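Private note to self, pasted from the team thread so I don't lose it. Backbone tokens:
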């Protein structure tokens, strides 16, 4: 079986999760982006590429943040909360704008699909500006009145004079496969349980 893990903030906790299921990372801290373990090949790739790699059948399953699952147009099966990677996708605005209750005309985000759906569910009309990252700079640059982005500790918002005003989507790490292939993930978890037991017994 071939599994993808996202690089970045979910990489270490994803390996810790695999480790708890008996799959130990052989070169922790190394630069290698793929490893072969007994019965399991693991590739470390950008989270946003994972839905496409699943669609291409380059990997059978992956660990992924719910934010990417919901933003993707690839039909995916998701296991639900694995118990790590918890954070929130939030609407945030400059502190001064929050105090003045200024209307939102334009929102910058790396999550245009989720943001459009959320705006429509709230019957709010605002333009969505899709950016590749560093969206917290957008209000200061004058290209947006607010942002929708991941908030974990809130440090990045505070550092940029922003304040979160609403949760758009609670997020967590989840096991994913292509839609209709959930049994693959079940077998990974079952095998992991067996291996975990064997590792525990050793
Ligand atoms: C995310 C997000 C925020 C930051 C929030 O970026 O885009 O900028 O984390 O975290 P905080 O609330 O703890 O400050 P990340 O560091 O994951 O990098 P990325 O933009 O490359 O995804």
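Design output:
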């Amino acid at each position: 079986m071939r599994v993808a893990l996202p690089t970045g903030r979910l990489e270490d906790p994803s390996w810790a999760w695999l480790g708890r299921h008996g799959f130990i990372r052989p070169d922790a801290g190394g630069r290698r982006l793929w490893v072969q373990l007994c019965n399991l090949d693991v590739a470390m790739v950008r989270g946003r590429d994972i839905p496409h790699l699943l669609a291409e059948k380059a990997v059978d399953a992956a660990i992924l943040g719910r934010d990417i699952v919901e933003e993707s147009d690839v039909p995916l099966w998701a296991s639900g909360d694995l118990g790590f990677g918890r954070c929130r996708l939030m609407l945030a605005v400059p502190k001064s704008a929050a105090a003045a209750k200024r209307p939102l005309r334009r929102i910058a985000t790396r999550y245009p699909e989720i943001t459009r759906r959320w705006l429509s569910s709230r019957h709010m009309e605002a333009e969505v500006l899709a950016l590749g990252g560093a969206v917290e700079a957008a209000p200061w640059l004058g290209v947006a009145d607010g942002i929708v982005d991941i908030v974990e500790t809130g440090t990045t918002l505070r550092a940029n004079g922003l304040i979160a005003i609403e949760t758009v989507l609670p997020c967590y790490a989840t096991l994913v496969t292509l839609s209709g292939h959930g049994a693959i993930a079940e077998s990974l978890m079952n095998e992991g349980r067996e291996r975990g037991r064997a590792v525990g017994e050793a």
